[in-house]
Design brief:
With 260 residues, this protein is an alpha/beta fold. The protein has a domain of 179 residues: 3-Layer(aba) Sandwich (Rossmann fold). The chain contains eleven helices and seven strands. Strands 1-3-2-4-5-6-7 form a seven-stranded mixed sheet, sandwiched between helices. α1 crosses α11.
């Protein structure tokens, strides 16, 4: 894909489900969903976006549109004629744009902790993250994001996961993270009213990035869209409460019928 190498993990057989991570994340944040998908008979695939983890550390600028092109290219490269897309945070915008372009090839779309577009305060925060990353202060971003992305109770009860999440975020390439943060700040869903597949908008009850109100707005904007809330969880709820996320996600997918 234009000389960009996209790394991915996959497990299982059956209908493909592809997972797109959010800012600072990687395929690793979906490990519980990959296992859950394979157990339920899906071919579960999670990938690293350009500039993240094992994929190419490509120079910027990045954009949601470019990330969507990469996702489409991955689906093409893997020969996925029918696919469900799952996105987290800015990955919801990537998945939405890819779903529009893939059309009938997408049999379901699940959007976790996202927004139709970020409010001004969030855009400003993302621009500040880019500045801090370029100033060599990515570790500060990692600590802050891991702190706010998990609930207080969970951080206290499972401090190891809090530390591991901060480590994943701090391991980003600072220049690539800065470009990704600026791309995320400009991100948006482009035409949700024209999505033709069954969709799910869901969020953690205590998500401060893509809160339940944003999930409600997404569900209202997409013609065939369910709404669900993960009780007691924050933004990284696929890590904080993977059992509940898997129950909601795969319950939705099992009720969604791919086009004939």
């Amino acid at each position: 894909m234009d000389g960009i190498e996209i790394a991915y993990d996959e497990i299982g057989d059956g209908l493909p489900v592809v997972f797109a991570h959010g800012l600072g994340g990687s395929a690793y944040v979906w490990r519980a969903q990959l296992a859950g998908g394979a157990e339920r008979g899906y071919r579960a695939i999670a990938y690293d976006a350009r500039g993240a983890a094992r994929s190419s550390m490509a120079p910027g600028p990045y954009s949601v549109e470019t990330w969507a092109e990469d996702l489409i290219g991955l689906c093409d490269r893997l020969g996925l004629e029918r696919v469900a897309l799952v996105g987290h945070s800015v990955g919801t915008m990537v998945a939405e744009q890819a779903a529009l372009r893939l059309g009938e090839r997408v049999w379901a779309l699940a959007l976790l902790g996202g927004a139709l577009e970020w409010p001004a305060a969030m855009r400003a925060a993302l621009e500040e993250r880019a500045r801090l990353a370029r100033a060599g202060r990515l570790h500060e971003i990692a600590e802050a994001v891991a702190f706010s992305g998990l609930t207080e109770d969970y951080r206290r009860e499972v401090p190891a996961v809090h530390g591991l999440l901060a480590g994943i975020l701090a391991a980003n390439d600072p220049a690539c993270y800065a470009e990704a943060a600026l791309a995320a700040a400009d991100g948006r869903m482009v035409d949700p009213g024209h999505l033709g597949c069954p969709a799910l908008a869901f969020a953690g009850e205590h998500d401060a990035v893509g809160p339940p109100s944003e999930a409600e707005a997404i569900a209202a904007a997409i013609p065939d869209c369910e709404l669900a809330i993960i009780p007691g969880a924050a933004h990284w709820c696929q890590i904080e409460d993977p059992a509940s996320v898997n129950e909601v996600l795969f319950g939705f997918l099992e009720n969604a019928h791919p086009p004939s």
